Amino acid sequence: ARVIHCFEDVTGVIFVAAISEYDQMLYEDENTNRMNEAINLFDEICNSRWFKETSMILFLNKKDLFEEKIKRIPLTTWCTEYSGHPNDYEETTTFLKDKFENAIRAMRSLYILIFRVHWTPS
Question: Which pTM was predicted?
């Protein structure tokens, strides 16, 4: 049974995507790129009738890993339509933010944060 109707009165959704995984495939489906999957899922959630009035908060995670990886593996390995400098951190993150923003078909509040998680073992 679908439980999506349980989210009818939600006022905000937090969506987390690892931007460092642009060149990787899903564990469960080696033919599906992780970034494509994240953007498609974001599209489904944002454009669902259950979230049409809901603010979206997008966390683009693993900034530190992305910043190092983009120097070695150009964004064009994932997205051939990208025409900016394929190894420039600022340009590529702007492009990624735009890809997620373009998934939203209706006007709504969208907050995007790019960050890294710092974990310290106790």
Answer: 0.88
